[in-house]
Design brief:
Layout lengths: L1 E4 L6 E9 L2 E9 L4 E6 L2 H12 L7 E5 L6 H11 L14 E4 L7 E6 L6 H7 L2 H4 L4 E6 L12 E8 L5 E8 L1 H15 L2
Bound molecules: adenosine-5'-triphosphate and magnesium ion.
């Protein structure tokens, strides 16, 4: 890991040398501020592993919002999160069911895997589905297409934007809002990247 201060002193650039898929990869990671983390996933398996790292850190009441075009890897990340939370068995895309519930062995919290893609008037329908009862309740909510229901979401959350870079690379930007999510992001940065 090589920290580097730009001439303006505004941006700290950290080069991460990490072994992914048994190959050495170098990821340039600008730390814009302490509430954000910006990195590149080089494969579906890596996105899953990063999700697992996060799943290990999640607690009852946590809200993880996923945003990104079709096929950017939201479900892969959610599956990794479920794995990290101790869910045994497959986690499938809830595109048609809207909300899928997974109960890991006690005492871990339940995972609510929510997908807002198919909702018409997204906010009203989400509220009609009882979304409020899930958010901040006894489980962890992982919400795909969260950008469709922003007004229905609490201000404190972790927001994860995924984007296509090329066939196998995805840009992932995590933004924490609120003290709990600052802590979560700090811990994720430490356990996933060692910084
Ligand atoms: N680095 C990567 N991370 C995640 N998925 C990747 C990556 N590179 C390629 N892929 C591929 O992109 C697709 C991602 O599928 P996934 O269902 O996770 O996306 P999604 O964002 O949930 O899509 P949707 O909006 O349809 O729900 C898969 O086919 C996967 O193999
Ligand atoms: Mg999906």
């Amino acid at each position: 890991m090589i920290p580097y201060n730009s001439s303006s002193g505004q941006m700290l650039v950290v080069c991460l040398y990490s072994v992914y898929n048994s190959r050495l990869k170098v990821t340039a990671m600008p730390i814009l501020d302490e509430h954000m983390l910006d990195f590149v996933s080089h494969s579906p398996a890596q996105t899953h592993r990063l999700g697992t790292r996060m799943g290990l850190l999640l607690r009852a009441g946590d809200i993880v919002c996923l945003e990104g075009e079709l096929g950017t890897g939201k479900t892969h990340l959610a599956q990794g999160i479920g794995h990290g939370m101790g869910i045994v068995g497959p986690i499938t895309s809830p595109t048609f069911t809207l909300i899928a519930e997974y109960r890991p062995p006690k005492p871990a919290p339940t995972l609510y895997h929510i997908d807002m893609y198919r909702l018409g008037d997204a906010v009203d329908e989400a509220l009609a589905l009882g979304l409020d009862d899930y958010l901040g309740g006894d489980g962890v909510c992982v919400i795909e297409w969260a950008d469709r229901i922003v007004p229905a979401l609490p201000p404190d959350r972790i927001w994860i934007s995924l984007s296509h870079l090329d066939l196998s690379k995805r840009g992932i930007v995590m933004t924490a809002s609120g003290a709990r999510y600052d802590d979560l992001l700090r811990e994720f940065r430490r356990t996933a990247f060692g910084i």
